[in-house]
Design a protein that fits this description.
- The strands form two sheets. This protein has a nine-stranded mixed sheet. It has a two-stranded antiparallel sheet with strand order 5-6.
- By secondary structure, it is an alpha+beta fold.
- The radius of gyration is 15 Å and the shape is globular.
- It has a single domain, classed as Cytidine Deaminase, domain 2, CATH 3.40.140.10.
- Helix content is 20%, strand content 34%.
- A hairpin with a 5-residue loop joins strand 8 and strand 9.
- It is built from three helices and eleven strands, in the order E-E-H-E-E-E-E-H-E-H-E-E-E-E.
- It binds zinc ion.
- The site of zinc ion has 5 residues, from strand 7.
């Protein structure tokens, strides 16, 4: 199975994230459907046994209570608790967030960083190292995907791609 991978630059505390190509395709499809508006959802998966790798297995669509426009995305939470509860029995957990910056750069905005830091320190999420995946550019052609890991309230670590995280669209 083709997959994409990222890792932190800091060798002292090496963290990795992997994303199956199939899940990226689903995310790109949701971005195409959103057109010029932002969209996004949550990432679900599990950690490797040594906890160093976040293995993303699913990216959900936009909860229906989300607020979104061309430049903002505020993810709602409708249905997510029930979904996560059903995934726990399959050993799958909340790993972080993803969203789309239509036509923009995949860099996290100031607001993105603030909300992720909040999640990293929120006991409700039980996720001290949440990931943020951002799809930037054009999801039909020249898109870029960034991956950032939030280590508590410390400065986030932008991860570097271990693979060429681009695909030509079908
Ligand atoms: Zn953003």
């Amino acid at each position: 199975m083709t997959q994409f991978a990222w890792r932190t630059e800091d060798q002292e505390r090496l963290l990795r994230a992997t994303l199956p190509a199939k899940v990226l395709d689903e995310m790109l499809e949701m971005c195409r459907a959103a057109g010029k508006r932002e969209t996004g959802g949550i990432l679900i998966g599990r950690h490797s046994e040594d906890r160093s790798t976040a293995v993303i297995l699913e990216a959900t669509g936009r909860p229906k209570d989300s607020l979104f426009s061309w430049a903002t995305f505020s993810r709602g939470s409708h249905g997510l608790r029930a979904l996560l509860e059903s995934r726990w029995s399959e050993n799958r957990f909340y790993l972080g967030e993803w969203h789309f910056h239509p036509g923009g750069s995949p860099n996290p905005s100031h607001q993105d960083i603030l909300s992720m830091k909040k999640i990293a320190s929120d006991p409700d999420y039980q996720c001290p190292l949440p990931l943020l995946l951002i799809v930037g550019g054009n999801p039909r052609r020249d898109y870029l995907v960034s991956c950032t890991v939030f280590i508590g309230v410390a400065e986030p670590a932008r991860m570097i791609a271990e693979s060429d995280n681009r695909r030509s669209s079908p």
